[in-house]
Amino acid sequence: MPDETVPSAATPDSTERRDTSSGLVALGCGGAALVGVLVLVVTLAWGSWGATDFPRVAPEEMAGRAFQRSQEAHEIMGSSGR
User: Fold this and answer.
1) What single-letter DSSP state applies at residue 21?
2) For residues 29 and 32, what is the distance between their CA atoms, to the nearest angstrom?
3) Under a CB-based contact definition with an 8 Å cutoff, are residues 81 and 70 in contact?
4) Cα–Cα distance, 6 to 31 (Å, whole number)
5) Model confidence over 13-33: pLDDT tens digits?
6) Measured distance CA(21)–CA(28) in Å, rounded
7) Which segments of 1-82 are extended strands (E)?
8) Nearest CA-CA partner of 82 in 62, 61, 67
9) C-alpha to C-alpha distance for 6 and 44, rounded to whole angstroms
10) Residue 74 and residue 81 in contact, taking contact as beta carbons nearer than 8 Å
11) pLDDT at 7
12) CB of 81 within 8 A of CB of 71?
């Protein structure tokens, strides 16, 4: 029966190749995701480097503003805030 072939031990099993390739695909996807996250972090860090243009306000003035906003919120909600 020459039509029948017997697999030899030298040829790898097809499931073995499939497992290896799916593992490589998963590793590649994980690596691509890691690179994407690193690019995002570096971009955000680069953009915020030296961002010191925030307005300087005295602590007493900020406390006064916070108290005023709190009082306004209590008046809107209808409570005395005390």
Assistant:
1) H
2) 5
3) yes
4) 40
5) 555 566 678 888 889 999 999
6) 10
7) none
8) 67
9) 60
10) yes
11) 61
12) yes
Residue given tokens 């900020």 in the structure block? 62
C-beta of residue 70 within 8 angstroms of C-beta of residue 64 = no
pTM (two decimals) = 0.41
The two structure tokens encoding residue 79: 């409570």
Residue 74, C-beta contacts closer than 8 angstroms, at least 6 positions apart = 80, 81
The one-letter amino acid at 29: C
What is the amino acid identity at position 55?
A: P
Between CA 72 and CA 82 the distance in angstroms is: 13
Predicted local confidence at residue 24, as pLDDT:
87
